[in-house]
Amino acid sequence: MITFARLSEQFYALTAQWGIPWIVPTLVVMGIVVGVIVAYIAVAAMFLIWWERKISAHIQVRFGPMRVGGWHGWAQSIADGIKLLLKEDIIPARADKVVFVLAPMVVFAASLATYVTIPWAPGLIVKDLNIGLLYMVAISSLTVVGIVMAGWSSNNKYATLGAMRSAAQAVSYEVPLVLSLLGPVMLAGTMSMGQLVEAQGGTWFGFLPGWFVFPQAVAFLVYFVCALAECNRLPFDIPEAESELVAGFHVEYSGMRFAIFFLAEYANMVVVAAIATTLFLGGWRGPWLPIPGLPAEVSRGLFSLVWFQVKVYFLIFVMMWLRWTLNRLRVDQLMDFAWKILLPIAFANLIITGLVVTIWK
Amino acid sequence: MTIQLGIFYILAVFTVWAAAVVVLGKNIVRAAVALIFTFCGMAALYVLLDAEFLAAVQVLIYVGGITILLLFAIMLTSRISSATARVINDQVVLSAIAAAGILVGLIYAAMRGIPALSGPPRLPETTPFLGRALLTTYALPFEVASILLLAGMVGAIILARKE
Question: Per the CB < 8 Å rule, is B65 touching A174?
Fold first, then answer.
């Protein structure tokens, strides 16, 4: 089987034969991986922004962007990106400059680092860590740090309020989020993202695919709700509620720094959907056909790559759909929902899953 | 091996620098932000010691949870975030003696190589081992720590409710 790990090892062995110290090929592989991931994030974010504008427009019986690029305004995001690049970079006079500059970097680095353990296709994973899932959850919790840094350093009351709301929300929703992820982990007996997909191979009752969403439907719903909150998306968008906080934590940011926040937000949506796909929707699993002229393994890999993307973008579509149909929760409703409803459900699911797993095995 | 050593020194300098900012910084929010970087540096050092699980938990609990709550508390008390904090208080002599004592002990340990510090043989995977150890051999300390935390939480609620 062709895997990314084996390919890079062959590359290391080859360069070792040529007498090059191992740090050089390691850095080359790292550079390629970072380049590919950043390119993917940039393209995905531009597509998602355009897609979100189209979806919101159609939900509100409008057309959305129609002019730039010709067909349904497909080049609108590219134009917006160029505009943001050319805009003046403003740092408020009384802002804490070091923290202000650092904040978008922290947010983007946190979402970039989680792409390391996403299993795109069989064998196509940058590093299949033993603790892959825990790593992803831990690293993505760093996003809040960046948001709080941005909000405080801006020296603006709206920004500070947004950051505080974000901190309260993220800390509360992280608890049921992690608990809901434990259900599939208990069923699979592993936290490695690659092995979690492998564990969903068989079928339930002979006809349903062996995805964990069927025995763990409750956990899936809890995870999805918490993931919406972690991404600061409606109905959980009080950190950046436009109508009360102007824009929340990034109100003082302009130009490229603002674009980085935007990019990280959409990159986070992809990460959240990728975790849900991997744990509950069978990852890259799906029916595949041999493509004529290609070895079976390669055609299966190509189909898997497409299946993974289809599932991820379907979940993102649901997130956008919810954003444009639901209204915002109040702060107290938000906290009540996390601690009084989601947390007990997640605990009950955990206990029942544990009982069933110990009795069955 | 030498590259690992180099990475260790880079991480060590970064962590110690961040920790120094925590202790010596006059602005308390900046100190809290530097604390986050200190914890991240510690997590990276854990990875270097083959303790990936501990590193991930360090980031998840300390960075994603505790420091965020710390920042939250600082930002709620408006006077603290603007005023400059005192770096040195009245117990400077006592704490200097304690710190010097710890420093001497650590240098002694590094020179002699205390046998208990050499550690057990490396495990291929630490996570299942840790899980089993926590729920069998160390179940009682684990539960005692949980009860201690619960008591702390109840105490905090009572203190907050009094107003």
Answer: yes
- The contact set of A with B (CB < 8 A) is 23, 96, 98-99, 102, 129-131, 134-135, 137-139, 141-142, 144-145, 148-149, 152, 160, 163-164, 167-168, 170-171, 174, 178, 191
- The length of chain A in residues reads 361
Place of tokens 């090892």: A9
Residues B83-133: tens digit of each pLDDT: 566 667 778 888 889 999 999 988 887 777 655 555 556 666 777 888 888
Q: How many angstroms separate the CA atoms of B138 and B140, rounded?
A: 6
Task: In whole angstroms, give the CA distance from residue A126 to residue A41.
Answer: 15
Q: Does B9 touch chain A (CB under 8 A)?
A: no
Q: A138 pLDDT exceeds 90?
A: no
**B68 neighbourhood in chain A, CB within 8 Å:** 144-145, 148, 167, 170-171
Residue B148's pLDDT is what?
A: 94
Q: How far apart are CA A46 and CA A38, in angstroms?
A: 12
Task: Give residue-wise pLDDT tens across range A155-190.
Answer: 788 888 888 888 888 888 888 988 898 888 888 888
In this predicted structure, what is the pLDDT of residue B150? 93
Residue B132: exposed, middle, or buried by beta-carbon count in 10 A (0-12, 13-18, 19+)?
exposed
In degrees, rounded to 5, the angle at the alpha carbon of residue A261 between the alpha carbons of residues A257 and A262 is 115
Q: A145–B63: do the CB atoms touch at under 8 Å?
A: yes
CB atoms closer than 10 angstroms to residue A260: 19
Closest of A304, A311, A272, A283 to residue A195, by C-alpha = A283
Token pair belonging to B41: 């540096």
pTM of the predicted structure, to 2 decimals: 0.84
Instruction: Tell me which DSSP letter residue A91 carries.
Output: -
CATH of domain B1-84: 1.20.120.1200
Name the strand (E) or helix (H) holding A260. Answer: helix A255-280
Indicate the domain borders of chain B: 1-84, 125-163
A237-271: per-residue pLDDT in tens? 776 666 677 777 777 888 788 888 888 888 888 99
Structure tokens at B152: 């702390």
